[in-house]
Amino acid sequence: MKKKFIVANWKLNGDIKTISNFLKNLKLKAPLYLKYNTIIIAPSTIYLERVYKNIKDINIFVSAQDVDINKKGAFTGETSILMLKDIGVKYVIIGHSERRFLHNEDNKLITEKFGLIKSLNLIPILCIGESENERKENKTKEVIKNQLSMILKRFGNKIFTNTIIAYEPIWAIGTGISADPIYVQSIHKFIKNYINTYDANNIEKLIVQYGGSINSKNAKNFLEQPDIDGLLIGSASLIYEEFLKILKISNDILVNN
Ligand code: PEP
Question: Which residues are catalytic?
């Protein structure tokens, strides 16, 4: 049975006190769930090293929420992939819809970031997904193909070995309205098939997780689907009780299978 990948995306939230309290509770309980889950915490850049040092011994990983395309130089305010690697970061979220819309990040830039992260042997968590209007116009698959095709054309499908894709329909993020798990299952199957058949390589360790208004009440319905390999969780991941409940749900599904 494949482990589920559960990512906590804290976005621009948290302070030393709340993070310390969260990690204290996570360290107490999460080891019970590590056999069946890979747990990844994505705090804001300023807390990455603090979180890493706190949880590295129990095999929980940290992810950055973004990275610059430049490795070093005169780029005020940016964070380099070399710096992330230097402090122990293993995963990097890229292409989150908040960055696509609020920071005008396009598929070209995201393709650059994807290649850069892979070239340093870190693992990208690539967010993709359609807007409300695109869904209404039945364009979900077309949008997803567009978001993936520049990477595929540039590097071939092999680059997706050992990567994570987070399918996050934009209309489901932070709205309290999650997508239908059966619909998500079909989209995940489509994503895996599209990447796997793009050229001759059969891609290993391609994780496709779902994100969008996940909480402890709806997580089970998603995690039970065969092609939903994990979850990217925003607001529910800020509350340690809620996050631990989701880890337990994920664990219990796999224990019972
Ligand atoms: C996200 O921002 O990636 C996300 C899934 O947020 P939420 O869980 O709050 O919808």
Answer: 96, 168
